[in-house]
Amino acid sequence: MPDPFPEKKIAIVCDWLTNMGGAEKVILSLHRLFPKAPIYTTLYDAKRVQGFENATIYTSFLQRIPFAQKKHPLFLNAMPMAVESFDLNEYDIVISSSHSVAKGIITKPETLHICYCHTPMRYAWEPWELEFRLKSFPSFMHNSIKKKMHKLRLWDRLTADRVDHFIANSSYVVDRIKKYYRRDATVINPPVNTDQFSIGEPKDYFLMVGRMIPYKRFDLVIETFNKLEKKLHIVGSGPDESRLKKLAGETITFLGRLDDEALRKEYRECKALIFPQLEDFGITPVECMASGRPVIAYAEGGANDSVVEGKTGLFFSSQSVESLSEALEQFEKQSWDPNAIKQHAEKFSEERFWGEVTDFITSKL
Question: Is the pTM of this model over 0.85?
Answer without folding.
Answer: yes
